[in-house]
Amino acid sequence: MALSLPVAKLVGSSVYHPFVPPRPADYLVNQTVRPITAHSSIPDECLDIWVSTGRWEEPCAAGMVQDAMIDLVYVWVNGSDPLHQESRTALSRAMQHTPADARFREHDELRYSLRAARDATAGWDTVWHIITADVLHPNATTHANDQLRLGLVPQWLDIQCALDGPNGQPPILLHHDTQVFRLTGRPGTTLSSADAADWLGKVIPSFNSHAIESQLAQLDPNIVADNIVALNDDQFLMMPLPPSAFHSTLYGPVFRMQSGFRVGGDASGDADGGGEWRSLGWSSYLMSQRFGLRKRPYMQHNPRALSLPLMHEMSLAFGSYFAATPLSQFRGSHKAPGELEVNTIFMATHFVIERHREALLWSWIVGKWGGQRGVLDRELKRGMWRELGGHEGDALQLRRPKRSSMDDIESNMRTAGVRSPRSSDPKVVGNTRYYWVSMDGFSSSFADLAASTGIKRSECLGDEPELAWDMFRRVTKDNIACGDNIIAALIHASPNGLAVFLPPPSTQPLPNTGPITLPLEMPAAAPPLSRNPRAFAVRLLMRYAYVIGDSTMNFIGPTSAAQTRNLLKAADRRKGVTLMCINDDFKDGQVEAADKVLRDWFERRWPNQLECEV
Predict the structure, then answer these.
(1) What pLDDT, in 10s, does the model give residues 390-415?
(2) Are 220 and 214 in contact (CB under 8 A)?
(3) Distances (CA, A) of 218 to 158, 212, 383
(4) Do 292 and 388 share a domain, yes or no?
(5) Whole domain around residue 519: which residue ranges?
């Protein structure tokens, strides 16, 4: 997706970014799974030590990794734009669907969120991206595929100046919906240009943030970094932060979730479609269909760390569902069975967690014990039981293990030469706490190691010979308690690292055939085993590494001008807040007064203009 040069055009009294949309063939998704660029430069010998021990030591060295390159990606719309309003009103009338006004209200948040980001990310290697809506040019013909479209532009931003990133400010790039949307399908299906053109005609224009977020995975990897922080314009970075507050090459993206607040699967579509709960229930249902039935934590409503290659992989794995999401041109407007909206942020987070869990179980069951024969006979199953800590009898009970993973974070980052997420002065630099790292396996609590672990041999391993792939499928999806407890028991086996999961060393080279992954869908039959299962497993586990962390945040949803004023005064008094979200819940009759309170506070908080503000 080549971006068009940002030449501004005045139409009426508003400035737009004119562009020619892609050809129908360009709306088809690239179905090639993408590598994680930073991992490619780490030698296999170093990765083996890192994954097996959890320590960045010889042959790993400083300089092999750097602070993560992270781009900020905003999803933004100017709901007061006259052409956007005209298009929205026409579609709303045609569909007889009335969306909530708050979804499109504009308080100039983007300007100040970007000013805040400039202050918070000084020193980062970053580019800023703004995904905005677009409309058909009023003078466009009705028969040409190359109809000129007008991309919405922040009216206060000189977009030609911003592209250059003057005086050390990150470049600002505009992407428009029609440039970003791509048709995905179920893995293995073949789609045509005609399919793409038909689909696009049903989904553009889009006035649904769920639909637009569903296309984040299709941002051009030649333009956008592997690591992104996805923001809405009502989200603010309140203090300076190191990149590791969101991503590090060693530990992966930092997910912020409410571990005690779980979302169960719901395929009924009965939940409120105007908010997020219908999409959350549907997304949790889809995850359970693929990875096993469980409730999954809700994501905090603040800037989210995401891996673009892994989001793209997820969009391929759930392709038909991502294609269905934009059929809701307004939130909740399309309710056909099986075509509900996905919640991309929720799914992208839990996809990484589940793929790492899957990698752990594959490595131990298929790679280590199944080996090239791929059969687990009675003797091998006895060996597996002993490695889990079992002896005679059918039951195994273990208490919480002692692990050093959390204690090693600071020294590992220092040795690698990257900045730690912890702050020595949280009043000056924002502090981020890692409270779970995937180097400790998998936590069904999504918070810490299990206080105790119990396994029944007859239920989880069984005595009869079976294919290693069949056991892997069973404990990965059908009996997730067994899979969770196998991982927990193996974590007891050593104080650090994941060596116990890994197959034995091999001198066979890994073929250079692209990223290391397991199948996007769980097949009934095992795919061919790598010539070097250990190196395969190490790369697989590294690909899906992640952190669950936390930073001090402040979420407010004022409904009136007076409440807005009081909440913002309280925010000024509160020190050490790293992330903030101001959600517009203003009641009718309060919007104008509350808008003034907000704008005044924004200007006091971030008075220094960006380069290229006009």
Answers:
(1) 998 999 998 878 999 999 999 999 99
(2) no
(3) 26, 10, 45
(4) no
(5) 357-548
